[in-house]
């Protein structure tokens, strides 16, 4: 059973949303039998987000307010909140009131059914629904996760964030990284509301391209970086085999038909040398991968 929930709220230029958000959160706290702490992380806002949130600490004793001096991004804000949290379950909630804090118990109930991480499957109208559907379809295909929506309100056991490695902008792949570590994922339907106030922080076509690159980067890390020789070795062998075939063809042309073509010789050399280099890179990557695994084991031992 979950005893204490830490609600982490990354906030960037959300001064008009903080107070109504905390009123909603307070309704949750008053009506729940769980113990809550709320951590607002002001991620280098240029407005009065930190000032407004800091004033609310006098009204809500369970509220902590932290601040980044510059905008580091949502992932860093989540990690800062996590480092300062004490709950055995962590809930990540946006500050724009697109998700109702009163629906958090739905996620908690699902978590207590035996899941390690539960995310909301948002229902409602939103601008980038098609892009979101494509992104989530690719996520299910590449990462073999069972949920429909990675980038939504979510709750997880503390161990999840302790085990996974989050790089910049990788908050969108917490579920995929958790599943790769052996954690069980689940979901519940939640309502998506229009943003309460202010402008969206994650918009523009450029972010779609960045998100796609991040998708490939995460897939590469949790798949090929675990067995790099599988990628580099196979590619290297393919180059060597193709190089051998091209070279054999060149030899046949030269000695059987007296029509040798020098570019084929250069291509043969290029393919074989490239294959040997790729194979060597695969071996080096395997060594680095083993070192990384040892470091992870040491870190786990130090945390105990």
Strand portion: 5-15%
Radius of gyration: 25 Å
Order of helices and strands: EHEHEHEHEHEHHEHHH
What is the fold named in CATH at topology level of the largest domain? Spore Coat Polysaccharide Biosynthesis Protein SpsA, Chain A
Overall mean confidence score, pLDDT: 86
| CATH class identity of the largest domain | Alpha Beta
Number of domains: 2
Give the end-to-end Cα distance, rounded to a whole number of Å: 22 Å
Largest sheet: 7 strands, mixed
Give start-end ranges of low-pLDDT stretches.
none
Looking at this structure, what is the CATH superfamily of the largest domain? Spore Coat Polysaccharide Biosynthesis Protein SpsA, Chain A
How does the helix and strand content classify structurally?
Answer: alpha/beta
The number of helical elements comes to: 10
State the strand order across the main sheet. Answer: 3-2-1-4-6-5-7
The total beta strand count reads: 7
Walk me through this protein's architecture:
Helix content is 53%, strand content 15%. With 304 residues, it is an alpha/beta fold. Strands 3-2-1-4-6-5-7 form a seven-stranded mixed sheet, with helices on both faces. Helix 2 links the parallel strand 2 (35-43) and strand 3. It is elongated, with a radius of gyration of 25 Å. The two termini are 22 Å apart. The relative contact order is 0.11. The model has no long low-confidence stretch (mean pLDDT 86).
